[in-house]
Amino acid sequence: MAKVLAALRNHWKKSTFGACLLGWGGHWLYGKHCDNLLRRAACQEAQAFGNQLIPATMPLKKATVFLNPAACKGKAGNLFEKNAAPILHLSGLDVTVVKTDYEGQAKKLLELMENTDLIIIAGGDGTVQEVLQEPGLLRIAAFSKIPIGFIPLGKTCTLSHTLYPESTNQVQHITNATLAILKGETVPLDVLQIKGEKEQPVFAVSGLRWGSYRDAGVKVNKYWYFGPLKTKAAHFFSTFKEWPQKHQAALMYLGPTERPPEEPDEKPSRPPLYVRLYRRLRSYWSSPKKLPQEVTPEDWEELKLSTIELSIATRNRQLDLTRTEDFMDICIEADSVSKGQFVHRGSQKMRDPHTCPEGSQCIQASRCILQLPEGTEGSFGIDNEEYEAMPVEVKLLPRKLRFFCDPRMREQMLHAAVQ
């Protein structure tokens, strides 16, 4: 023992390095062990769903998974196979996996929509948008009725903040999201239809951003050598451009619309033919023909704006299941901010892109038209994807899609609405 202590004392640098390496290795192994325990517990819970008896005449539920293997720097495929796929298979679902990285995908998606009970999107914000952008997909009535599950595997997963509890453990976050799909609780989410003058419409579940904070945010990774200060560095160096950075535009918008009552999931059976004929004839002969009513012109509001950033966002982040009006939030931020405020707010917007700081003009609208001056350069950020800035019309499609969510999150939404 004395010789060992003497050797450790004489080679203290190597001893210190070895102790640090041993401590790190033990911590890494313990983390792997905890992840395996989480996977095992989730699989056991999924097995309970798979053991449920169903009638012999009832077919298995079919789930179509749209997986983006390139998400999370190419790690999404491995994350899905290790954490989500075993849960889905043990639950008794008939799972079909479609990778979103090949040509002819749109035709394949339209074919699968006719033969699936639920859709699962495995990836990040880009994967969600990629599925929604397929030509004609959102125009299919059946697609709007199919419940959608979201497994967060990408770098940015905005929807996960609404659908699932926060978790710093990636394995737990993925398994919780997959189990939420099996539990069957859903919430309706709004969609924005964003259409240029000539382009096909783009659909978004989060919103649109245009301005200096977004432009600085996309350059954060270029300043990786600043480490934890790279976000502040990106916004600080962007202030070296022309200051203040103003974005000029004209905005026309319509106010909120009244939310219609939800339709029942099960429609009543169709009456016999003779009953339908009788009702039609009675309606035709009993009621006098009415002259077509004049269409009331829409009450558009117009606004000239100068802003450092404009955002148009759905209410999906602050979901209220009991509200009586449908609208999107338009935030017009003041252009009179100091460089220090710009750097500070820029860091906040990296965590919550659609936050509306104090002093901004907030508008609730169901539809809007954004007119940009000729020669306007720059880009829009639509659900964290980049698009060329151009005049656009943004239309709210209220409660267009139903997403699976964790029952605890749904309960929190209803409890917050009652308070």
UniProtKB/TrEMBL annotation:
One of its GO terms (cellular component) is mitochondrial intermembrane space. It is an enzyme of class 2 (transferase). The keyword NAD does not apply. It is a peripheral membrane protein. It comes from the Eukaryota. Transmembrane segments: none annotated. Keywords: ATP-binding, Kinase, Lipid metabolism, Membrane, Mitochondrion, Mitochondrion inner membrane, Nucleotide-binding, Transferase. It catalyses: a 1,2-diacyl-sn-glycerol + ATP = a 1,2-diacyl-sn-glycero-3-phosphate + ADP + H(+); 1,2-di-(9Z-octadecenoyl)-sn-glycerol + ATP = 1,2-di-(9Z-octadecenoyl)-sn-glycero-3-phosphate + ADP + H(+); 1-hexadecanoyl-sn-glycerol + ATP = 1-hexadecanoyl-sn-glycero-3-phosphate + ADP + H(+); 2-(5Z,8Z,11Z,14Z-eicosatetraenoyl)-glycerol + ATP = 2-(5Z,8Z,11Z,14Z-eicosatetraenoyl)-sn-glycero-3-phosphate + ADP + H(+). Pathway: Lipid metabolism; glycerolipid metabolism. One of its GO terms (biological process) is ceramide biosynthetic process. Its cofactor is Mg(2+). SMART domains: DAGKc (SM00046). The keyword DNA-binding does not apply. It is found in: Mitochondrion inner membrane; Mitochondrion intermembrane space. Pfam families: AGK_C, DAGK_cat. Residues 58-198 form the DAGKc domain. Its EC number is 2.7.1.107, 2.7.1.138, 2.7.1.94. GO terms for molecular function: acylglycerol kinase activity; ATP binding; ATP-dependent diacylglycerol kinase activity; ceramide kinase activity. Belongs to the AGK family. This is Acylglycerol kinase, mitochondrial. The gene is Agk.
